């Protein structure tokens, strides 16, 4: 199997400071018009960022919005793999990510070269990958899923089809239980989710008995800011770049997910 080459992101150029007193919301609105840009923001972004976004949604909804947009530039207020998915769907558009450090521990724990090697043990298996993975891993997959459609994506293969699920072993185990399918799980996990142990949650619940518990938090919520969004639009960097051979291979499973979710 040919290994997909690593994803690349163009290096950041040195930046001029933001002039003091600049009205950021106004400047972002001006740049958005001038650049014919759309601002997409994940639900977990701060309210001030959601307020300036053209579209707010979860991973699936943002992928759907990215697939439909006719803007020339996509400013993606989320983590790296989401912006990369937007680029996979929009090779001719410029995709900007305000903060390159907005990464995902789950995606990082499944390097494409190691995943390709591991897959060699499972010839003939279909590969279902959670969207929280790199373009390289998407390129090795048959279909992509989000947490909201994982069951449906696994069930899209006829019963008895041998299936590998990656990179989140916990989501995989949950889908396995829900669908009754026997899945081979890549042993990946998210550091953020692992920190929310049952014991810690129980302690919190004892101290705050009235509190509601909402599961599946997304991380890096505070990495974006209006300043970073303004700078990335003004300087048109950092920009997401996906090698064309990887992009073409990753496009097929992403499109399959979008078609099955329509
Ligand atoms: S919460 Fe975990 S899986 Fe979700 S984006 Fe953050 S590191 Fe990735």
Which tags fit this structure?
262 residues; alpha/beta; Rossmann fold; four-stranded parallel sheet; globular; disordered N terminus; binds iron/sulfur cluster
Broad CATH class of the domain at 8-103 and 219-242: Alpha Beta
CATH homologous superfamily designation of the domain at 8-103 and 219-242: NadA-like
> What small ligands are held by the chains?
iron/sulfur cluster
Radius of gyration: 19 Å
Structural class: alpha/beta
| Uncertain ranges | 1-5, 217-222
The appropriate CATH architecture of the domain at 8-103 and 219-242 is 3-Layer(aba) Sandwich
**Sheet with the most strands?**
4 strands, parallel
Number of helices: 13
Total DSSP E strands: 10
Taken as a percent bin, the fraction of beta residues is: 5-15%
Give an overview of the whole structure:
With 262 residues, this protein is of the alpha/beta class. The protein has a domain at 8-103 and 219-242: NadA-like (Rossmann fold, 3-Layer(aba) Sandwich), CATH 3.40.50. It has 13 helices and 10 strands. The strands form 3 sheets. A 4-stranded parallel beta sheet has the order 3-2-4-5, with helices on both faces. Strands 7-6-8-9 form a 4-stranded parallel beta sheet. Helix 4 links the parallel strand 4 and strand 5. The structure holds iron/sulfur cluster. The site of iron/sulfur cluster has 11 residues, from helix 5 and helix 10.
């Amino acid at each position: 199997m040919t290994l997909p080459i690593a994803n690349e992101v163009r290096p950041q150029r040195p930046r001029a400071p933001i002039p003091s007193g600049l009205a950021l919301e106004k400047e972002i609105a001006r740049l958005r018009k001038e650049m014919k840009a759309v601002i997409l923001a994940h639900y977990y972004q701060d309210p001030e960022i959601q307020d300036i976004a053209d579209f707010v949604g979860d991973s699936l909804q943002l992928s759907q919005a990215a697939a439909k947009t006719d803007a020339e530039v996509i400013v993606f207020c989320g983590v790296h793999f989401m912006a990369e998915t937007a680029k996979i769907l929009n090779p001719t558009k410029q995709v900007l990510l305000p903060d390159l450090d907005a990464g995902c521990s789950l995606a990082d724990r499944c390097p494409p070269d190691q995943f390709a090697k591991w897959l060699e043990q499972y010839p003939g298996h279909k590969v279902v990958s959670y969207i929280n993975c790199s373009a390289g891993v998407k390129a090795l997959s048959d279909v992509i899923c989000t947490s909201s459609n994982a069951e449906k994506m696994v069930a899209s293969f006829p019963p008895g089809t041998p299936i590998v699920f990656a990179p989140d072993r916990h989501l995989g185990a949950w889908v396995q239980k829900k669908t009754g399918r026997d899945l081979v799980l890549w042993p990946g996990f998210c550091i953020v989710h692992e920190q929310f142990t049952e014991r810690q949650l129980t302690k919190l619940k004892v101290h705050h008995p009235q509190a509601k518990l909402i599961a599946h938090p997304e991380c890096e919520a505070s990495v974006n800011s209006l300043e970073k969004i303004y700078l990335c639009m003004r300087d048109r960097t950092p920009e997401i770049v996906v090698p064309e051979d990887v992009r073409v291979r990753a496009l097929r499973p992403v499109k399959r997910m979008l078609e099955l979710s329509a």
